[in-house]
Amino acid sequence: MKFLQQKTREGIILHRQEDFSKMARSGQVAAQILDDICDQVYPGKRTIEIDEFIETKIKEYGVQSATIGYRGYKHASCISVNHVVCHGIPSDKRLAKGDILNIDVTVIVDGWHGDSSRMYVAGKPKASALNLIKVTYDALMLGLEQIRPGNTFGDLGSAIQKYAQKHKMSIVRDFCGHGIGRVFHQEPNVLHFGVPRTGAVFQEGMFFTVEPMINLGKPNTRLLADGWTAVTQDRSLSAQFEHAVGVTSDGIEIFTESPAGKYFPTNFILE
Ligand code: MF3
Ligand code: CO
Ligand code: CO
Hints:
Largest sheet: 4 strands, antiparallel
Number of strands: 15
Bound molecules: 2-amino-4-trifluoromethylsulfanyl-butyric acid, cobalt (II) ion
Number of helices: 4
Helix content: 10-25%
Order of helices and strands: HHEEEEEHHEEEEEEEEEE
Shape: globular
């Protein structure tokens, strides 16, 4: 007999109670790796070395990388430095003093995907760069506060967009969050902008990522010839944080919370 998965009319899977613990396990491995790499990020380091360290950790934890082999991608992480918006490819290029970077790791544990990213710094960045990082993190967390059964994806997107605009920054529209679970990228597209009370209604059992990219300049992006690297058209700095969450009866479970609470991990404190 075929087991029919429960889905909304938008095609969003409603997962079962027992699936939450599977997602928490994969999310915690991704988050642990993002904790583990804190000491690896400093001026002079090549981003490919950070990626190799991540691959070593993935093996050590006995899990799989979701990105190696994904649509021809070859690395265990995406490392997006300064004006790179997302999907930066690890390379021989060395980090410079004051660089800011997003590191994005997705693992598969027992068939379930754990996807998370955070910002890191190589040495002390400019105040404007630190402020961008802080606003991006706060925008993510404000967005997450909107998620509960009855609210909509538009409520989430608009909370993030309003906060970025209040700080005279812009939300990238060319990339979005995504449903996640046994499949890496699936319904729905999670937009980081929107209109309150519009879009699909949150329901218990939905699993998806929220991963706003915020630019200091204009929102427009451009794809480099490598087919992956997305940069800001105006070369302004870009920041991103990503959590994978599941909708509960009255809010969310964050699957990718840092085990050590390291959201500004590279030994600096944001006030
Ligand atoms: N982890 C990214 C996301 O948040 C996707 C990376 S796909 C890759 O959805 F192939 F570029 F690694
Ligand atoms: Co993602
Ligand atoms: Co990701």
